[in-house]
Design goal:
With 373 residues, the chain is an all-alpha fold. 65% of the residues lie in helices and 3% in strands. The chain contains 16 helices and 4 strands. The chain has helices at residues 25-39, 54-78, 84-92, 96-108, 118-128, 130-133, 148-162, 166-175, 178-190, 207-237, 251-263, 270-277, 281-286, 298-343, 348-360, 364-372; strands at residues 49-51, 115-117, 141-142, 346-347. The strands form 2 sheets. The protein has a two-stranded parallel ribbon. Helix 7 crosses helix 14. The radius of gyration is 34 Å and the shape is elongated. The model has no long low-confidence stretch (mean pLDDT 91).
């Protein structure tokens, strides 16, 4: 890293300038434009200035206009005011009249100068080379608020859920509601080279683990109905339990959680399964002081089987949702761009992708050469 010296920065090759906010980045850009005009004899139409937002591009154009006017006045003998860089350029000039004429010419063509956002640059290239690239001549870019993406996702969502079980649909709603799926589809289409992970082997079997979960819930529920009070007495009176982990006033809440779990549709919410985890043999053994046997009851074994069945069903449903998302990505990438083209809709992301595709295509080198010139 070296400090920037404006009049020593090379005007060929590549240079990276890093600066914090408020340190004069825009001023430096306008100075470089002046140097390219005066020292390299470039026309303003040959200097590409790209930024991120329309507001930034408008400000750059305004600031370049202002400095061109100051410089033209200075080269005409009017003085540069407090602009030290322009004063230096005037002092170094061998032909001030010619330099002034060049600056006035730049002012006249400023409105056509390529001072653009990245999307604006892509739109300009596609419009100027529409015939060679097979691009629409009058397509106007807009944000993706046309509803086409939502329609494509809704069509896929509806068709896929016709064959889904209630548990699968519930898992999808919790993990990836429609708004999340819509965002995923838009991102996948905007970044077609991006690999989506993890890849999920299909088909994903959720029927077997869900059936095992229903059976485990039924077995635990049958035993729990008759043994709940005995379990409550055992947990609150057992002398070996660490009471900092199993306080007596916490026990009723966990028992109520098990009540709700055993009456809930499968798969149940994670917080309900968490109550049952507290009452499994492994958890109780870990919470028993040395020298004491942990509390034992048949319901604890059944609750452990229920928790394990929930975990296996949850993993299967997680894989099912991931596979659903993978299929959605593939469907959106295959369908949405063509749907937009048929509707005559071009989004800002489409501009980037169309230009990228043109540069990678059979005429890409010719297009790159035209842009370089």
């Amino acid at each position: 890293m070296t400090a920037l010296v404006w009049d020593q920065l090379p005007l060929s090759g590549r240079s990276l300038i890093e600066a914090s906010a408020g340190t004069g980045k825009t001023h430096t850009i306008t100075t470089l434009v002046l140097r390219l005009l005066l020292e390299r004899g470039r026309r303003l139409s040959e200097i590409l200035v790209v930024t991120f937002t329309r507001a930034a591009a408008a400000e750059l154009r305004q600031r370049i206009r202002r400095r061109l006017r100051i410089a033209a006045r200075a080269f005409g003998g009017g003085g540069p005011g407090d602009d030290g860089e322009i004063a230096t350029l005037v002092a170094r000039s061998a032909d001030r009249a010619r330099a002034r004429a060049r600056l006035l010419g730049a002012l006249r063509e400023l409105d056509e100068a390529p001072i653009l956002t990245l999307h604006g640059f892509c739109a300009r290239v596609l419009a100027e080379h529409a015939f060679e690239l097979g691009a629409p001549f009058a397509a106007e870019a807009a944000a993706d608020n046309d509803g086409l993406a939502a329609a494509v996702v809704a069509d896929f969502w509806g068709r896929e859920l016709l064959a889904a079980s209630v548990a699968e649909a519930r898992a999808l709603g919790r993990r990836a509601p429609f708004s999340v799926l819509l965002g995923l589809a838009r991102q996948a289409v905007a970044r077609p080279d991006l690999e989506v992970v993890p890849a999920v082997a299909e088909p994903v079997d959720t029927a077997a683990p869900l059936a095992a979960l229903v059976a485990a819930q039924a077995h635990a529920q049958k035993a729990w109905l008759g043994e709940r009070e005995a379990v409550a007495r055992l947990l609150t009176s057992h002398p070996g339990l660490k009471r900092n982990l199993y306080r007596a006033d916490w026990i009723p809440g966990w028992l109520a959680g098990v009540d709700a779990l055993l009456g809930a549709p499968v798969p149940a919410a994670a917080e309900l399964v968490g109550a049952a985890r507290r009452l499994t043999p492994g958890a109780l053994t870990a919470a028993t002081r040395a020298g004491h046997a942990p509390p034992r009851h048949a319901c604890f074994e059944l609750l452990e089987a229920l928790v394990c069945a929930h975990d296996r069903a949850g993993e299967a449903l997680e894989s099912w949702v991931l596979a659903f998302e993978q299929r959605l990505v593939a469907h959106a990438r295959a369908t949405l761009p063509a749907t937009r083209r048929r509707a005559g809709v071009v989004t800002f992301d489409d501009l980037l992708l169309q230009l990228l595709g043109a540069l990678r295509g059979p005429g890409g080198e010719g297009l790159a050469s035209a842009l370089r010139s």
